[in-house]
Amino acid sequence: WLKETLNTPTQITLGDSCLEGTREIILPRIFTWVDDPAVTNILWLSASPGAGKTAVGSTVVRKTGASRYFFRHTDSVSQNLLWFWRTVAGSLLNQYAVLRPYLSDAVKEIHEQQQSVEDLDLLSQFKKLIKSPLEAYYRQISQFDGSKPQIILLIVDALDEADRRDTRQWNELLETLAEWSQLPGIFRLIITSRPNDDIRSHLGLKCLEETLATGSSVSEESQADIDKYLRYRFLSIRKRIQQILPSWSDKDIIPQLVNNAAGLFMWAKAALDYIEGGGDPLKRLQDTQYSTSIDHTQPLDDLYMRILQGIYRSLDKDEQDLLQKVLWTIIMAKQPMDLLSIEELINTPECSLWWVEQALRPVLAEQKNDHLLQSCHKSFTDFMLEQERSGEFAIKEALHGLYLANTCLQLMNTRLKFNILGLSRGYFNRDIVDLTELISVSIPWSLQHACKYWSEYYPASNPTAKSKNLTQNLEIFLEKHFFHWLEVLSIISAGYYATSLLKTANKWPGNLSSNMIQLLTDGTKITDLFHQAIQESCSGLYFSILTFSPQTSLLANHYRKLYNPSLQVTRGIQDWPTECQWSFKLSLEGHKDAVRSVAFSPDETKIISGSDDKTVQIWNASTGQSLKQPLEGHQSSVYSVAFSNDGTKIVSGSSDSIVRVWDAFTGQSLGSLEGHDGGVNSIAISPDGTKIASGSDDNTVIIWDISTGQNLGQPFHHRDGVTSVAFSPDGTKIVSGSYEGTVYIWEISTGQTLGDLLEGHQGWVTSAVFSPDGTKIVSTSVKGTIRVWKLTGQNIEQSLEDHQGIVDSVTVLSCTRTNSNLIYKVPITTWAWNAKSGWILDASSKAPIAWVPNNLWPGFRTPSTQFVIGAPETVLDFSNYIPWEEWRV
Length: 889
Prior knowledge:
repeat, WD repeat, P-loop_NTPase, WD40_repeat_CS, Methylamine Dehydrogenase, Chain H
């Protein structure tokens, strides 16, 4: 159950290890470090692309049995930062049996707090899934004196290949990796990456750094190791050539190739793969001897160029075009595919691409048992994507992205269908027998790939890209296969892809009619509202969406005509729930990265915004126009912004730990407030404009004098990072919330808490504020709970407790709505309601029929012959009900 709860993706298998007899200096140093818990517990192995970092990492894994996470550049799932610590926890679970009880306790504790592992952010994942169970294990073994504890080793490979587009997530990942240094010494961490400055700035003095030198600074060890590698590979080459030229010798050739490699194992491997890849080995050997540059990328560029020239040289125009299409697809694929999947995706006959695979072997990674085709190395991918390096061979990203988006839609429109698994009745996905085998037969990898990535291939970087065929295929997809697509995503546990893909498609510029835009918008609302139904039942999602989508839904109405579902709403549910209805009045565009915080000026004429691009922007609230150049000064993401009550000052807090004050009219910096040791998550200005409160990841709240920038007293301390701060209306108190789910009230003059710690939230506190009259505090949490606290003198009492609407019995659910009912005209003996999940079930088979959206749960009760749900006078008629499996479509 623990592995299922973590729900982590499968990591790619180990790559090549170091050749026996090589790396005889660096490997012993690493193994010595691993066994010495007295020295720093983080080792950073940095080097240029192609230097052999991953081979060293693979060797250490094989020798020690360590856990490993690989940020593979060809696998978008492994690059997703939110999967990282969850997958690491799963890897530790597999590799170190001694940790299993502690990881199990950690997951149980998360569930007891009414949280889901999937909902945890990076910081919470590290604290709850890694730090807490590892420290618990260490406390336990520390009780046994004299025994030598087992070393726990984690290797994070190719960190620089992680998806860094979300700056805040990337910084949080680096912060958690650096926080590993606080763990006891038996927990060892090896990180391999390029020598990037942002990685170095976070790890700093907390790690031991080892380097694999290349280029002009290449070490004698690297030169000697590459010499050994080349001599090993030349055994077969020499035998092949000497069959024709018995007197041929490689005596003078190997030293020259060693010099050309300049410490890059990737160059040596690619060169030998090219020589052995077919054709005239002597001619290919000569090709590899021309490069003399020792620039970091030039040796690889020269080699890649000669390899591609050799591959293309013997092909006619049609063969070149096909090979190019396959190569570009391999490199741009969001996840690696095998040859059959590529044939299906680009619509070529089966077994027609075998010769292409053979020709491309010099630039492809060595295949494992999964037979996935992928670039030989990140350096080759970079080479192919940069026009100035690869010239005529460079990938035209916009053109090929458009092509792949179109082929994905074509494949889905051809292969998707109703009840694709051929199920005999409705099921929860978890109950489908032999599901893995059914998927392999009915949903090939190419179709899975298309369903998960179709809109992501569209060239966002080229807004002028258009395709009439693409528009036509998208229209067919939306009008004929939308539900079939959701069915497949449900089956392969990828329902969470749906909303993001639809939102991305809705941004395709210039191609979409108003009708298609409305269909995509409706589709986004559907996948948002019915995500639980989509994730849990490939059959139940049909009834759920068609029944409970409002009559205003263009997409649902279109499919109601196609399917004519037998479970029908005959009155009510005319519009989307409130959370699905918001539309925007103005779009304020100018930031270069995610916007983290916004605020209105007191007179509501201006808006300020803070962003991951490290800037603060000031906007005209009526026109949406930027009023100033971006306010620059922060060194990292801006998490919180606020106006003073008189509108003359702006205050911003950042993950760089700094609070800055700005003149709201000129945009000039009025000073920086330094004192926090962690990112500043929340800021507030006192009603009289003389003080600033800031809450930080360092677990503290600091009060500042806005005119002098000095601390007013000692910081107020929480037990975890502070997420929200606010002043009372009279400016004498501060309320603060934290990641641990608690709320404190502080007297500013004394620094003491008012009353006891306020507890009760499940999940971290997202906001805490005073009521306008100062007599109440309202706090909210990430789990959607709202709590109201009443202040009476020095006492605090909870005056309102939120209702979760979940009980074990189907006969009672806490009622928060009255006077309006949703009526099911069916005998209660036929159907059952699961009050925990929201599903209406077949009473005998327990098969899912339809999932009821959460906003309709309150007020549920079961009279003797009908189902009643609190909702705006809505009637659902079961009298003509036909099971899903009997639909004729």
